[in-house]
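## Example record

The block below lists the input lines for one assembly entry, exactly as stored, with component labels intact.
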Amino acid sequence: MTELWVILISAGLVLGISAAFAALLLVAERYLANYGQCVIDVNRGSRRLEVRGGETLLSTLMGRQIFIPSACGGKGTCAYCKVKVLEGAGTVAPTEQPLLTAEDVANNVRISCQVKVRNDMAIEIPGNLLNVKQYTGAVERIRDLTHDIKELRIKLTDPPTIEFVPGQYVQLMAPAYKGSPEAVYRAYSIASPPHDAGYVELIIRRVPGGTCTTWVFEHLAEGDEVSFNGPYGEFRLSGTDAEMVWIAGGSGMAPFWSIVRHMKQAQIARKCTYFFGAVRKGDLFFTDELRQLDRELDWFTFVPALSAPAESDQWDGATGLITEVVGKGVSDAAAKEGYLCGSGGMIDAAVKTLKGKGMPEEKIYYDKFT
Amino acid sequence: MKRSPQLQFVVDRMGPGGVCREGFLGSDPRPLEEILDADNSTVAGMNRTHAQIAERLQTVMDVAIAAQGRGVSVGPHLEAGWHEAMGRIPSPWPGEGTFSKGEMELTDARTGRTVRVTPLAVHLIAAHGFYQGRGSRYRLEPDELAAMLGL
Ligand SMILES: Cc1cc2nc3c(=O)[nH]c(=O)nc-3n(C[C@H](O)[C@H](O)[C@H](O)COP(=O)(O)OP(=O)(O)OC[C@H]3O[C@@H](n4cnc5c(N)ncnc54)[C@H](O)[C@@H]3O)c2cc1C
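Predicted structure tokens for the full assembly:
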């Protein structure tokens, strides 16, 4: 019996000492390791950052106002924060390996939240990321657009205005709250037009059990301060004057609500038909405003469609899945361009429909990752 | 038995806030290995495989997604509805990529029972025989699920 106690106590001691030693190492790495001043060369001399080593590349860059998209808050799970590191990153860490493809590794692409700045480095990032900024603002208005979609209107405070191309998105920070232990960032398309530069409007659909949307729907209130960074993304009108087909559903409305108001204000009279799909009438929003634009602008046609209208909806508009309505409403699409925003399933179906109408795949634009 | 650092990494990511708000283990007091073993035995006891269950679920989910939010019949007594969402979520197991967000509600008209299934959940069943911990929003009881799917 005494022997058993001795064994248990010794095992406990060994475990305790190992745990304390591991914790000490972590603390030492965090606070004592001194990597000194390091220089990060960005885009072959376009920016030269003198930084203190020891932090991750993602947070070091963020500290110098260079924002790399990241959805998981630097926890190495989302793989959005990929950066090309030409020099100084060392070998790929085990935590990065699962998130990198063979092509990434061959091209020196790294997961910036998992790479520590320990010495001088040279990195390459898309030039437009150098224009990304951190913003704070106050929620001026929250309104229900449907039973599960809200519009946020945020008045910018610091900086007081934003410049972006309609179609781009920001990454909204949902802080830690009860039931969500850490802050996360999620992408939301900017719904306001760029000339309304002191504000950002977002259209957010509730995702049951979702981290950020639960915060928006259950915790965020008018007057609260919020922060986000951006703008990001390549989704935007092309420079041609080809006729366009826009297809969206749900919160996929957001970029088009920005683009159409921008086109009106900038007098871009490019022919366009906007197909917007919902299940029932209660899922539609901005219908009156878009119908008004349809009447006012001879280049703009708005086609809302319901896939399963209830009798009480008294709907006499287009019915069917939005892709079926597009199939009937668009004849030859070979010379047209397609712009899509919605869930992955809707996008897959819309791409198929447009290709079936002769639209070349490279003329169909949508954000990856949606 | 001692858990490998790789599996510990996965278990850490399965906690609340690791990959998603509520995590994957719910209020289940059992360690991950025990959850996997128990569900494995249940599925083997039915002479089924995880691959068969995942394949049937995927077929049903494809039909629900194609209906773009409209409720759809996916078999005798079985109704499915897809709650779409934009964005993608990674697997708690490293190196497995990301999966569309959103969830399918599958209702058995005979029993009135509804379960929620996501693209990531189907992947976890196919790749790991993982049906999540009890109390998780997306926990699926393999025997009930198989019965629902007519397997
Ligand atoms: C470029 C871009 C633009 C976007 N624009 C908009 C926009 O304008 N408006 C908008 O509303 N959204 C937009 N999104 C989507 C948005 O970024 C978020 O992804 C969305 O709001 C959900 O975030 P969340 O944190 O609430 O959900 P999350 O918590 O990140 O994810 C919830 C989902 O994860 C899955 N999941 C969670 N837990 C589990 C589990 N245990 N097992 C299996 N699966 C699980 C389910 O599928 C569930 O639906 C955009 C996304 C991108 C990439």
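Chain B has a mean pLDDT of 93. Residues 5-148 of chain B form one domain.
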